[in-house]
């Protein structure tokens, strides 16, 4: 699996963004953060996390 297709768990995303589990699931629920479901497991592609951060930085710069 390449770095562009690496899948992160919710706890990994929580640690990287320093957000609570609820906040991460809220981002997923509102489709601000893309994710996939494998069985009962929720996974976030690294590129989705990168895109989310880039979008937020652009929004902050435009404000």
TrEMBL record:
Record-annotated Helix-turn-helix domain positions: 7-56
Entry's Gene Ontology molecular function annotations: DNA binding
Coiled-coil segments: none
Top-rank taxon, per record: Bacteria
InterPro entries: HTH_17, SinI_DNA-bd
Record protein name field: Helix-turn-helix domain-containing protein
Species of origin: Streptomyces capitiformicae
């Amino acid at each position: 699996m390449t770095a562009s297709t690496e899948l992160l768990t919710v706890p990994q995303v929580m640690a990287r963004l320093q957000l609570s589990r609820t906040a991460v699931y809220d981002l997923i629920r509102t489709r601000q953060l893309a994710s996939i479901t494998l069985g009962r497991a929720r996974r976030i592609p690294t590129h989705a996390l990168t895109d989310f951060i880039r979008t937020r930085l652009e929004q902050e710069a435009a404000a």
